[in-house]
């Protein structure tokens, strides 16, 4: 398996396998880059079909975190971890604490946080074994639920998109489709309704739909994502699964903007060019959904919500810079975002050669 990692030239600095038979822990921690600082990224707890699938996921996710943290202006590298198993049945205090000890063993090269299948309460348990953990509860000195500023960051990115396309950073009267109204999608819907947008939503979870309609009776509901993607929209916000933008879905889009919270929205490299050719502005997901990592990273300095919110508000300006670079260099915004992130990683890491006492 290790030969496979190096054989694909993934570019990672370190990939660590963690196992504790007594608790059933099987985890992989991937550190993509520490060029800007310790690698920060969440822990995903998921019932992968195979170890190979888990490895594939953690390699991709950790690289994405490096780019996200760099573009967000954080002095943090990129990493990620996956725990293999069904969190509904496999998760236990002992397993989480065993995992925490593996995180601690890396001596701060990797700092963990919440992700799919892990929650604030889990971070509090992990923190009993390592100090290299964020996303803890307010009672434990942490930032609490990171979906709050994730949604706010997506909204700021959407405002920047609106200014780029229509000349003003306003969404009043715009028809916005939100695919997936879990925690982030629900909070994003609230921002949009407050801004005067006409909001259309869909979700596979009827309870999630009910919660949104109870809070915002004006929202319209459609049957599924396929219907939403073909709808007459100004903005599409994918906030559920990744890989939703593909050769099959992009030709059906009628929206002028795609800006959502879901990770890895492009099914594969090249889809960003299809969007660009159709005149659809795509806000790179790792740019606009960085509010969560900005929120949890603020814990490293003693969490202050107002300070974290100011940093997330700055994603509006970062998005504008990405769109300006894309226009100047004649490339899609996704390519421009990558270039800005890579430039910052290279320029700042070079400073390490200047020795200090």
UniProtKB/TrEMBL annotation:
Species: Prauserella oleivorans
Family: Belongs to the Glu/Leu/Phe/Val dehydrogenases family.
Annotated InterPro entries: Aminoacid_DH-like_N_sf, Glu/Leu/Phe/Val/Trp_DH, Glu/Leu/Phe/Val/Trp_DH_C, Glu/Leu/Phe/Val/Trp_DH_dimer, Glu/Leu/Phe/Val_DH_AS, Glu/Phe/Leu/Val/Trp_DH_bac/arc, NAD(P)-bd_dom_sf
Enzyme Commission designation: 1.4.1.-
Domain of life: Bacteria
Record domain Glutamate/phenylalanine/leucine/valine/L-tryptophan dehydrogenase C-terminal: where: 144-353
Pfam families, sorted: ELFV_dehydrog, ELFV_dehydrog_N
Keywords on record: NAD, Oxidoreductase
GO molecular function: oxidoreductase activity
Protein name: Glu/Leu/Phe/Val dehydrogenase
């Amino acid at each position: 398996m290790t030969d496979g990692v190096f054989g694909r030239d993934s570019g990672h600095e370190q990939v660590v396998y963690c196992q504790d038979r007594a608790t059933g822990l099987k985890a992989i921690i991937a550190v993509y880059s520490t060029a800007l600082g310790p690698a920060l990224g969440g822990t995903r707890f998921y019932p992968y079909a195979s170890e190979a699938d888990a490895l594939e996921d953690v390699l991709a996710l950790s690289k994405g975190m490096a780019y996200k943290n760099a573009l967000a202006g954080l002095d943090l590298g990129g990493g990620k971890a996956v725990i293999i198993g069904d969190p509904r049945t496999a998760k236990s205090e002992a397993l989480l604490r065993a995992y925490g000890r593996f995180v601690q063993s890396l001596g701060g090269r990797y700092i963990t946080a919440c992700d799919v299948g892990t929650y604030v309460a889990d971070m509090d348990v992990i923190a009993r074994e390592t100090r290299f953990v964020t996303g803890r509860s307010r009672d434990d000195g942490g930032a609490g639920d990171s979906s709050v500023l994730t949604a706010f960051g997506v909204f700021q990115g959407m405002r920047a998109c609106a200014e780029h396309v229509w000349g003003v950073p306003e969404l009043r009267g715009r028809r916005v489709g939100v695919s997936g109204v879990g925690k982030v999608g629900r909070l994003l819907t609230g921002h949009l309704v407050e801004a005067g947008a006409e909001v259309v939503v869909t979700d596979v979870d009827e309870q999630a739909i009910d919660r949104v309609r109870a809070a915002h009776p004006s929202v319209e509901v459609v049957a599924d994502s396929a219907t939403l993607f073909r709808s007459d929209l100004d903005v599409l916000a994918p906030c559920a699964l990744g890989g939703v933008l593909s050769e099959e879905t992009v030709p059906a889009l009628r929206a002028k903007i795609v800006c959502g919270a879901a990770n890895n929205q492009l099914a594969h490299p090249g889809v960003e060019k299809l969007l660009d050719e159709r005149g659809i502005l795509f806000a790179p997901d790792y740019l606009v959904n960085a509010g969560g990592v900005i929120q949890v990273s603020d814990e490293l300095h003693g969490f202050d919500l107002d300070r974290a919110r100011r940093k997330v508000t700055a994603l509006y300006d970062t998005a504008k810079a990405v769109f300006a670079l894309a226009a100047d260099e004649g490339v899609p915004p996704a390519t421009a975002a990558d270039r800005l992130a890579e430039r910052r990683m290279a320029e700042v890491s070079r400073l390490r050669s200047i020795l200090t006492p």
